[in-house]
Amino acid sequence: MNVVEVTKYGGPEVLVAGRAPDPVAGAGQLVIGVSVADVMSIDAQLRSGWGREWFPGEPPYVPGTGVAGRVLSVGDGVDAGWIGRRVAALVPGGGYAERVAADAETVVTVPDEVPLWRAAALVQVGPAALSLIRAAGLEPGTRVLVTGAGGALGLALVGLATAAGARVTAAAHGPAKQRAALEAGAATVVDYPRLEDPDALTDPGDSTGLSRPHDPGDSTGLSRPDDRTDAGGPAAPDGGGRFEVVFDGVGGEVGGCAFRLLGPGGRFFAYGVPSGATAAIDPAEADRRGVRVTGMEQVQFAPAEFSRLAEETMREIAAGRLATVVGLAVPLERAREAHAALEARELVGKAVLLVTAQAVRYRELGGPEVLELEEVPMPRPGPGQVRVAVRAAGVNPIDRKIRAGFPGATIDGPQGTGIELAGTVDALGPGVTGWRLGDAVFGQVASGALATHVIAEADRLVGKPAELSYAEAAALPVAVGTAVRTLRELGVGPGLTLLIHAVAGGVGLAAAQLARALGARVIGTASERHHEVLRGLGVHPVTYGDGLEERLPGRVDRVLDASGRSVLKLSVELTGDPAKVITIADMAGAGEFGVRFSSGRGASAEDDVRALRDPLTAARGDRDGAEGRQAAARGAADPGRAARGDRAGAEDPGAAVGGIRVPVAEVFPLERAAEAHRRSEDGHFLGKLIINAEDAFPR
Fold first, then answer.
1. Nearest-CA neighbor of 354 among 23, 39, 14?
2. Lowest mean pLDDT among 337-346, 577-586, 620-629
3. Is residue 85 within 8 Å of 71, Cβ to Cβ?
4. Which is nearest to 247 in space by CA: 163, 136, 162?
5. Burial class (CB in 10 A: 0-12, 13-18, 19+), 58
6. Kindly report the CA angle at 246 between 240 and 247, in degrees rounded to 5?
7. Which of 96-100, 259-263, 352-356, 682-686 has the lowest mean pLDDT?
8. pTM, whole model, 2 decimals?
9. What is the dihedral of CA 617, 622, 623, 629, to 10 degrees?
């Protein structure tokens, strides 16, 4: 199995991907196929060599103590009913791996409605947060300070304390962490320097003394604008008393400053050591002020207590009452990036490692009901390939036709679906140049785009323009590529009239705009509800049905049929020449009329990429003076105007690539791919159906 090891004490670079034997379940144990592994700040500290007096052990070792996944096998004394169950677990180590053995007493079931990545992110944070909140005995109005409030545990504490009615001040460094704390429910926020400077905590115009949102000199500039009442109350005569409870997730001098803000009889919880030491507290001072100080024992549990709290954590997540932010999710082999982010102290919330991917697949030909969202091994790119973390993928008629067994499709094992996507480069195969990790891309792939992670040929991808959303970019590859090839094959150019059947579909819209830019007149059949949008694109719309010939505004020179309807005979009659008709959707009747077909297959990778980068020039098929002619054509035809300002929601087309705009008709989450296929079969929508893969894993 694949693992990540600490090869020696040092920086993040000592984390190295490697191989290890698969674990075997011993008595009282389960083997878990890991889907997501938790990354804790203490993992990074131990890797550096800190804490060796408390945490024995020497490199090489596999770090990681929290995982979520599915049970693969069980040992003696463990109910076989666990096998296949979605679980989260606390393990003594070895979590940065594809499989791990866990004691059954520290394994809990993950409810179906809780994503495994969320379970992994909270399997350790959740029990700690619940334990701290219970020990604090919060009541409505309790004045609470949380340090490290932008971290995973800090954000969970802010949310739980606020839900308990406490008045929470969140101490965190930087606007991003402070905004996250406000979104979690904090009444106000403060950066650490203001905790350390007593003068900065005194402002006659601000009852809290901790946030001055309307003061241009305020380093945070953040506050809940509708909630600026006293979060700290007047200071006690001895200068303390601003808070009744402090949750200190930082330690060191920050913890010491927080302690000095605690009033007599307060409760101080010192559980965090990312600064390298516990809070600088004078025990005599704590005794004098009657402050109860609780250390890390509050977040360290015996197995039975952990199990109880972890089960409660999963219930609270499912109910929406417990949450944290996952600020970074990277594949297992990139664990060093997660450690580096934690050490930089800039990460908002939690970091997790993605060990598996999810993909929409089917195991038999049939209707949309055969599609299932499955967990699959994280794909690995080969030479000349990249792995793409998918943000959005398109749904095309060919997808459902292949799924249903047409034309002559067979299946041998699980089959993916979808051939166009947009996302970010997630891994580079050998020999790949020109792309970097994190680059935003879009393009076509072999079947399987409906997934969280997909392998793509590096030279078949194009950089995503910043003005395009991922959904808008995913709507383009098949539509633009097919439109370019069919228009070039038809010889569409100035003075010709092109009739496009089903012009409101993705290919039809792309072809209409390209044809207009090439100087052709465009007529399109479409449902009447789409006519206004089509007129905005310069298309003369007509309705479907009998009597179409009478509704046409004149002669027709070429026909592009994207309808899938029985209109071939009519199209040939309109042009008088089968060579002037292309169908890309309805494969029936070809032999009768000798009509040529173009389904978008068979083109070279170079043609596809050229069509995406420069669709108008690609449609012309030449290169000389392309830039100048393209600009002139766009200026004359303005194919990108597409009624920009008068539509919202599903009918708002995306930004342009080479002047082409394809509306996003509807967006479906990955788990509703079957519903998207059904919608594709229904038809009568404007533009493209898109699958959103962003929510399947944190990005």
1. 39
2. 620-629
3. yes
4. 136
5. exposed
6. 160
7. 682-686
8. 0.83
9. -50
CB neighbour burial string for 347-380, b if at least 16 within 10 angstroms, e if fewer:
bbbbbbbbbbbbbbbbeeeeebebbebbbbebbe
DSSP string, 382-426: -TTEEEEEEEEEEE-HHHHHHHHTTTS----S-EE---EEEEEEE
Q: Which amino acid is at 307?
A: S
Q: Which long-range contacts (CB under 8 A, 24 or more apart) does 547-555 make?
A: 549/574, 552/499, 552/523, 553/523, 554/497, 555/497
184 and 159 Cβ atoms separated by less than 8 Å: yes
φ and ψ at 6, to 5 degrees? -85, 110
Question: What are 177-210's pLDDT values in tens digits?
Answer: 999 999 999 999 999 888 866 554 443 334 334 4
pLDDT value of residue 197: 62
Q: Which of 675, 581, 684 is nearest to 369 (CA)?
A: 675
CA distance 261 to 252: 15
Average pLDDT over the chain, rounded to whole? Answer: 85
First to last CA, the chain: 25
User: Do residues 478 and 444 make contact, with C-beta atoms less than 8 angstroms apart?
Assistant: yes
Residue 123, amino acid = V
User: What distance in Å separates the CA atoms of residue 699 and residue 692, rounded to the nearest whole number?
Assistant: 12
What are 206-256's pLDDT values in tens digits?
433 444 333 333 444 444 434 333 333 333 333 446 899 999 999 888 999
User: Residue for token digits 């091994």?
Assistant: 377
And the tokens for 557? Answer: 């020179």
The amino acid occupying position 128 is A
CA 538 from chain centre, in angstroms, equals 36
The residues pairing with 457 across neighbouring beta strands, listed in sequence order, are 385
pLDDT tens digit sequence for 543-586: 988 888 889 999 999 999 887 666 778 888 888 888 898 888 64
- Any idea which residue has 């409605």 for tokens? 113
How many angstroms separate the CA atoms of 120 and 99, rounded? Answer: 14
DSSP state of 242: S
% of the chain exceeding 90 in pLDDT:
67
